[in-house]
Specification:
By secondary structure, this protein is mainly alpha-helical. The protein is 47% helix and 10% strand. α7 packs antiparallel against α8.
Length: 397
């Protein structure tokens, strides 16, 4: 038999040792005083395993063994683990198990990601999300669990406890998956349990025509218009336009080099996708950049106070939209609209992917598939109408 239930207590009434009894037809052992019918309130499992003797006083959650029923359940669980060659004594001793508690694994994981952020391998925005997920969800809901004991059912229960939007739930589970991947790399766990899947319905891309873009930009104060005209002409992310400096405007080779980005208000010498992007200087861009006054800051676009633009450019855009009577966010109004208008004009998907700086053409195809389908439908409708017109002329002729 692997292990037995014992106690160091005596009967509180007669002061005699508790006697061991086994329930008929089972292996369950109970300690009881036959004379007083009392049971001990502190028990332990005496275990001899691989040449070592262990006294287990607590379960994996750190609860003291205070009843015969609790001790028997734990002993049976230990026996199963031994039979399955999965028994690890450190699960049952707080000092040895403590490093495996999720709250402590989270601390190591955050420190690892802080180091990544310090060398620009992780954006400040992504780092802030990881901190938030750890503080609000991982530690409160899973903090005292041993990461080695987490199974698919536990992750399912965790997912069901999140009464949040599907996109937020997906982001939280993604970070939790990264946490388990980190633990797996450190060989703290043998395998990563399967994670719940969250299906998202992709919202349709919002876009406006170039005419509507011009109306909105014309409703903006003249000193703020250049950066918005630049966004319309390049389709770049607003954070990239805000970070653009004159050293990245190569007049000789007629190219703009995008290599800086803003994240959480911090200027970074790396883009979101960790690539350097190049954009040709067209006559429209040459006109925009040629009329922008140089500043001592080195930034191409500065506000009325002579400083680089911050996130307040969203408010400037929204005010102009209200004047025009259009409701669309800045990102969609410039970046999504740039790609959409090109595709609707019949520009090849590869060219659009290059201009947008997407990591692959598949990203462009996925994001703007409905635009492509609309364009193809228009082509087919035009072909159908052309065929009908020919038939009418032939009949009349």
């Amino acid at each position: 038999m692997k292990g037995s239930i014992r106690t160091e207590q005596k009967c509180p009434k007669c002061k005699k040792a508790f006697k061991k009894k086994t329930l008929p037809g089972t292996t369950a052992t109970f300690l009881i005083c036959p004379a007083c019918m009392t049971s001990p309130s502190r028990l332990f499992i005496d275990l001899y395993w691989k040449g070592e003797r262990y006294r287990v006083w607590k379960d994996k959650r750190g609860n003291l063994l205070s009843s015969n029923e609790q001790a028997n359940r734990l002993l049976e669980a230990i026996r199963r683990e031994i039979d399955d060659h999965k028994f690890d004594p450190s699960h049952y001793f707080q000092k040895k198990a403590k490093p495996f508690y999720i709250r402590n694994v989270v601390e190591m994981w955050l420190a690892h990601n802080e180091q990544r952020a310090s060398v620009d391998d992780l954006s400040p925005a992504m780092m802030q999300k990881k901190r938030t997920h750890a503080k609000k969800y991982f530690i409160p809901l899973l903090g005292d669990e041993d990461i080695r004991d987490i199974r698919a059912m536990d992750l399912h229960n965790f997912r069901m406890s999140l009464d949040l939007a599907p996109k937020t739930v997906k982001n939280i589970l993604s970070d939790l998956s990264h946490l388990f991947g980190f633990a797996h790399e450190l060989e703290m766990i043998e395998r990563i349990p399967p994670f719940p899947r969250v299906k998202l319905q992709k919202p349709p891309i919002q876009a406006i025509t170039e005419e509507t873009q011009d109306k909105i930009i014309n409703a903006i104060e003249s000193h703020n218009q250049p950066i918005f005209r630049f966004l319309k002409a390049t389709g770049c992310r607003p954070s990239m336009a805000r970070a653009l400096m004159w050293d990245c405007v190569d007049w000789e080779n007629q190219v703009i080099v995008f290599k800086r980005n803003y994240s959480e208000g911090e200027l970074r010498e790396v883009l979101k996708n960790k690539r350097i992007l190049y954009f040709p200087i067209t006559s429209e861009l040459a006109d925009i950049l040629g009329n922008v006054p140089r500043s001592l800051t080195g930034f191409v676009f500065i506000n009325k106070k002579g400083k680089p633009y911050g996130k307040h450019i969203d408010r400037i855009w929204n005010r102009a939209c209200k004047i025009v009577g259009v409701k669309i966010p800045l990102y969609a109004g410039v970046r999504h609209s740039f790609a959409t208008n090109l595709l609707e004009q019949g520009v090849d998907l590869r060219v659009v992917a290059d201009l947008m700086g997407h990591s692959s053409m598949e990203v462009t195809r996925t994001n703007y598939v409905q635009v492509k389908m609309k364009h193809l439908a228009d082509v087919l409708e035009a072909r159908k109408n052309y065929g009908s017109d020919r038939a009418v002329k032939k009949k009349g002729g």
